[in-house]
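Morning run. Coffee first, then this:
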Amino acid sequence: MSTDSEIEQYGLAAIYLRKPERERTEAQSAPFDAKTAVFVVDMDEMYLTGKLIKKEGGKAPVETEGEKASMMAEELKKEQDTSSHLERMKKNLEVTVKDLQHRLDEAENLAMKGGSSSEQNKFNFSQY
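And here it is:
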């Protein structure tokens, strides 16, 4: 975890924070596979160590030490797709509102001028 001098700041609780010697030597002697060992972001913890199960396309299933299985790349892609879809919908609605506002302004101007009925008939709202 940390050096003894760093842990001493916790006082009496320091003995509970220090890992046993056996556990430390096991962690140091465990083989490390750089091709499958990964770190993944977790909401509860900052990062969790995990093992890459397989790679296929844009998916990367990872099994974390806490027995959680997650599809990090797939979840990220879904969120990005949803975000871009909502952004497109927002832009389309803004254009529609702007067009309808313009048409309303034109109709109000015609009504204020008191134009003839033939002019008012030219203005057709059946497009929407």
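The helical segments are 4-7, 14-17, 21-29, 72-113, 117-122. Good start to the day.
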